[in-house]
Amino acid sequence: MRFKDLIKELQNEYKLQVKNKNEIYIDVEKENIRDVVNSMFLKFKLYFVAEFCVDNVENFIINVVLNNRKNGYYVILRYKTDEDIVSLQGLAYQSELFEREISDLFGLKINGGKDTRNIVKHEIWQDNVYPLRKDFKFKDKVKDSYEIQEYRFKEISGDGAYQIPVGPVHAGIIEPGHFRFSVIGEDIENLEIRLMYKHRGIEKLCENVSADKLNLVFERVAGESSVAYSEAYALLIEKLLEFGVADDIKVVRTILLELERIYNFLDDIAGICVDVGYSYPAKKFSYLSELIHQLNEKISGSRFLRNTIIPGGINIDLTKEKISTILETIENVEERFEAIVDMTLNSVSFLDRVEITGIVENEVAKTSFDRSSWKGLRNKV
User: Fold this and answer.
1) CA 48 – CA 46 distance, rounded (Å)
2) I need a labelling partner for 166 at 20 to 30 A (CA). Which of 11, 103, 138, 251 fits?
3) If you average pLDDT over every residue of the chain, what do you get?
């Protein structure tokens, strides 16, 4: 459904606000939120995107973000609450992740949810401390008090059932994460991932940094995605200001985003080789990633292309000499990449470990996931 047609339809049922040319805001009574969300799914074919909370001092405002992927517009449903969240679990795919985070950081109870476990708060945390509330001061820190009850992992039972714990300490440099594999024989029946061991309080930090420096914070949310986060922040500000950047600026931003994507892509392939014990091509792919990092430093002064995208424009001058360097490096990397790929795919031991790994057949997926999960997976695929 087109955006204009949706507005006409919704105006017959709800009081709404239209903002930023592609956003519709609807205030809903808390007790009606599940019915309204379900109606948006069934009648208007919208999809769940996210759920977040705003501390309005007098109360809390829960925002449920839905969207139309084809036409690129959003519907944000809002309701006020004092102490609880109306759970969308069983209705909206992955809503429990957002609800559990809101519960941990704002202290709201999850009402009607099947999974209400802590997700940010680990055992080391203080119990009744909620960092995203307005009354939590910026420079205060959560003390190591060990007041949170032990996390309950999902369990399976049966002949030959056992669990394999991995992490949170790893040999690599990724963030800490605990992976709990539930296994029966050779088959992995369930994998549960527990993250957020290093929750850094980025949201609270952003509340206390001036807008002209926020791009520097965004770039450091995830180091290997510095360009993507800075572009997201720039697009956010430009949308709010209704400011359109010139086409040549869009071209440069695209080049920067592609350079970032390339080195991540190379690192991911190297990681696959490491995971199956094939170290020789892994080192080769990692070296190609290093060449892109060196290129980034040559053209911007930063191996991660930081501070190159800013709201309203760019902070880099791509001269003819720099453009020539980019083209030469990409051609060199592409030629060497293809040679290493050919060598890797000619390795029988490598193929034995990857050819049938990670494949979930259609019928298995339908019988192994609930309806809301299958809907989400199908649309992602």
Assistant:
1) 7
2) 103
3) 90
